[in-house]
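dumping these here so i dont lose them again. two proteins, back to back, each one seq then structure tokens. dont judge the mess
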Amino acid sequence: MKKILQIVDIYDWAIDELAKHVVEYNPHFEWKRLAVHPKGLQRGEIDLEPIRKAIEWADIVDAQYWRTLSQLAEMIPELKEKIVCLTHHNEKNLLSEDWSYVDLHFATTKKSFEILSDKYDSKKIKIIHNSYDPYRFIFNDNYPPKNDKPTIGYVGRIVPWKGLKEILRACTELDYSCLLMGKMDSRIYWDSIPEKDKECIDWSFFECPNEDVPNFYNEIDIYVGNSGSGRETGPLG
């Protein structure tokens, strides 16, 4: 039985929600799972020894986040001696690293597949589109919701490149509400947002548990993604 080490960034976040189903639907392999956040590696906050032992145990390393893999490959060089698979959950950093040691790339979009194929052997690249549970997000018969005012839905961490500041300014100007689901990640960026624009925020679903996510979408009039890249794959909105 093949032994596979799956490495995600954070348990129960978007990538992990997809990755753990890979384990669930492939019980004929022996799995271990680790969550290793790249910022923790960068700050020296993560003990590398358990990771090193898990890599030694594995026949295959299933990396689910590009930045975690690139750092671990430098910190634990023996990782490159294993069969390494890398799933590209976003298109932003496809070519930012030297992936010559990766044996198999999984692209989740046609665009990612094309970009990777221009650089690497196309035989090493497979396209597997993201899926979803049709029984989890049920058709909303009560749309639009009966809110006191139009409600924008924002999904994601509070970081500069997600564009929350501009969304809140627009909500203030239009007298809309902003229902926010995510977590605080950049206090400096948060402090740069004018206090008057923060008054439109509804915190009801901030850091909500996974089972409450479908209810968030039932409470908004429209979902808005405003990432600086012009596309948004992180929250899978």
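---- next one ----
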Amino acid sequence: MGITQGALFNQPRLTILNDDQMERIHSASLEVLERVGVKMTHKKGLELMESVGCRVVGDRVHMPSWVVENALGMAPGRLVLGNRQGERTVVLEGRNSYFGPSLDCIDYLNPADNGRTRFTSEHCRLTASLADKLPNFDWVMTIGMAADQPAEIADKVIARQTMTYCEKPFVFCCNDGPSEKAIYEMALAICGGKENFDKAPTIVQYSEPISPLVYYDPAVDKIIFSAENGVPLINFPAPQMCATAPASFAGTLVQSSAESLSGLVLVQAANPGAAFVYGAFATVMDMKTTIFSYGAVELSMMCGALAQMAQYYGLPFFGTAGATDAKFNDVQAGVEATFQCLASAAIGAGLVHDCSSWMDHGSVVSPAFMVLVNEILGMVKQFMRGIEVSDDTLCVDLIEKIGPGGNYLLEPHTMQNFRQVHYPELFDRTMMESWKSAGGKTFDDRLREKTLADLEHVPAPLPDDVIKELDEMQKGWGDLPPLKWS
């Protein structure tokens, strides 16, 4: 026997930027915030920004570098999110990555026949239940737009549907401040009150400044409400290189970082120490089609660079992966999703959204794509665990016992450890004759069958008293079409 040592791990790692590049992007971002600033017309927002040292000239807010640095110093570098039971399931710090589906698609792709229809509140129930079922989704978003509901209340309806049918932490967007207040109050009722919520928030507000460098008033309302009430905030611009951002990767990164950091300054002005999540959905305009590309390799490259900037700042990060420009669950969808998910995990991209639901440029939700990406994430998470090197895993004594020409099949060590291997549910590993004798099902057949089976999942129900409380809250929203809440 050699010298006994503890277990050693090396997590796979990818980088896009080196230290000098991050310093220059940071410096340029500060320069943009000081020289150019952001446009804001919200009265209280302007007052808060001015109160911490920003220079306000009309509707333009200029942020000196020391103001931004102060805000960075106040923001927590760690954010813990909880599920419905209060279990602390998502710990955003360092290079940790957690994956979830996206939000606000307008169409639904039926897994039975690939028919495409408008996304409704019933589809929200189905996809929230599916996200609850699929083990490699760590959190959830509202996923679709609920075309069957009045526009002024649809955001609240789909939030209630999602929190009813999925127990995982919930990232949401909404119309305005009153809508956020309603969603926040529902979250408090479901998790058992403010004290439980503050220990591990169950919801996160998603907000977007308008690229380039504009805040509209309802967004500022929501940012301030989030900061004042302890709702973690994601400030996530969506700059499009060549259209709403410069035609260079570095320039797009600078604008992206400046836009997200401007929200950090506002959040810390409203409530020093409030939780803030940095990031940007930076991608390209495809100059052949003019589309905002969700499958572009450059999206992953810039997302990875911004994830490194978040690590540089010591801030939690909201990333993007698992999306596709494909219209159906085809080879293009699988390739784009796999590349994005593996790249994001290897960089350590924090709270990673778009996994599994955004197809056709972010317009359509596909439950089958959700099931496919869940399988991809199973492989990615296995890869990211790395290889344990310890006295037990090196197996020197076992190798000596078996000796030359032996085999390990019946060894107790094999039975104790073979489940460390990832065994896919969708991908077939049988020989041709075995595959034929089992029915000769194609990948599309298997994906459809598994999706339809998974959609039968019934999440744990909310307690009756919580449902009654939500019903009382809902009475203030106005008349709703009949809905299944439990």
